[in-house]
Amino acid sequence: MKGAIERFIRDARRVMVITHVAPDGDAIGSLLGLGWALRWLGEEYTLACADPVPKGFTYLPGSEAIVTRPKGEYDLVISLDCGDLERLGAAYDESLAGLPIINIDHHVTNTHFGTVNWADTGAASTAEMVLDLLESLHVPLDSDIALCLLNGIVTDTRGFRTPNTTPRTMRAALKLMGAGAQLPEITDHIFNRRPFSAICLWAKALNGVQLDGRIIWSQITRAMRQECAFSENGDVLSLPKGDAGLVNFLGTTDEADVAIVFVEKDDGRIEVNMRAVPGVDISAVALDLGGGGHPQAAGCTLHGDLNETQEKVLSAVKEAIKDQVQ
Ligand code: 5GP
Ligand code: MN
Predict the structure, then answer these.
(1) Domains and CATH numbers, the chain
(2) 236 has a pLDDT exceeding 90
(3) C-alpha dihedral (249, 273, 113, 69), degrees to nearest 10
(4) Fewer CB in 10 Å around end: N or C, the chain?
(5) 232-249 as b/e, with b when 16 or more CB fall inside 10 Å?
(6) By the 8 A CB rule, do 201 and 228 touch?
C-alpha cells in the first residue's frame, strides 16, 4: 500500500493535496506535515482546503500557503483525513476529476473513493499515517513537520484521552517530540484558548439543554450566533465547527451515552455534532444520515428545518443505540 503511494508521489510532477471541509487540527496538521515533506522531496505541490484555516491553527508553520481552490495543472491528488469525496468540498473541482487520487484516512466510514486507498482505522489520527509514510519515504523529521503532525495527533485524541489512543499513538508522539515538537505549545493552542463569544454561545445553548433518555442534546440557532458574534465555522477557535466545542462538554454527562449539538448554519443547513461514550458506536448512524466519522465522534450536515431535523436525528440515534451495550 505505502509502496504504491510512494511510487505515485515519486512519479508525479505536480501534486494537489486536499483535506476536508471544516478542517480540524488533524486535517491541517496532516496537510502541512505532508506539504513540508513534499518540499523536502523536491516535488511541486499545492495544499488546499475548501474552508479557511481556523485561526487557532494559523500558528502552524506553512498554514498561510493553504489555498481554498486549486489553480493550475496537476497530475495527482492526495486526499487526507477525508472519509468521502464530497467532504473535500469545492477544493476538489472539475479540473481535478479524472486524476488518480490517493486516499489516506483513518475514518471507519471511509468509502474507498480513491485510486489507492489507505484507510487505517487503527490509527488514531491521519497525522500518524503521514508520519509512517514519511518514514517510508526516508524524509527526515524536522521540528516544523513534527509540530504539524503532533498537532494532528493531539487534536484527534483530545490530548491522548480518547479510546483510540494506543501505544502506537504514543510512540508516534514520542518520535515527534524527539524531533522538536513542543507538546505544551500544542495543547495550549488546542485546549486552553476560547474567546468570550464561545462562552456566550455555551451559556445560551446550555440554557436549552435537554436530557432525553440516554441522549443529551442542545441547539445553536443563527440568532444565538448573531447575539454572541460567533461565526458559523468557529474560525476564532482551533475548533472548526459551529458548536464551539460544546458537544465535547455535553459528552461528559454521567446520565448520557450520546451527546448531540445541532447548529443552524448560515445557508440553512443543520450541522449535527455527535459524541458517544466508549462502547456505543454512532459512526454507522452518522453514515446513514449522510455523514460519517468515528465510533465515538461523528457528524453529518442535513438540509431542512431545525426542529424537524432534530426529531429525525434523535429518533435515528435512539434506534441505533437501543441494542448497544453501555
Ligand atoms: P467533529 O465533531 O470533531 O467536527 O467531528 C467528529 C467526526 O465526525 C470527524 O471525524 C468528522 O469526520 C465526522 N463528521 C463531522 N461532521 C461531519 C459531516 O458533516 N459529514 C461527514 N461525512 N463527517 C462528519
Ligand atoms: Mn482525523
Answers:
(1) 2-191 (3.90.1640.10), 196-321 (3.10.310.30)
(2) no
(3) -100
(4) C
(5) bbbbbbbbbbbbbbbbbb
(6) yes
pLDDT for position 296: 94
Q: Whose CA is nearest to atom 11 of ligand 1?
A: 293
CA 126 to chain centre: 9
Residue 200 has pLDDT above 70, yes or no: yes
Q: How far apart are CA 57 and CA 118, in angstroms?
A: 26
What is the rounded average pLDDT for all residues in the chain?
94
- Asked if 302 contacts 195 with a C-beta cutoff of 8 angstroms, the reply is no
Å from CA of 92 to ligand 1 middle: 18
Kindly report the length of the chain.
326
Q: Is the per-residue pLDDT at 119 higher than 60? A: yes
Distance 207 CA to ligand 2 centre (A): 31
Q: Which residue has the higher pLDDT, 232 or 230?
A: 230
- Amino acid 271 reads E
pTM: 0.93
324: Cβ–Cβ under 8 A, 6 or more apart, which residues?
A: 257, 279, 280, 281
How far is 53 from 59, CA to CA, in rounded Å? 10
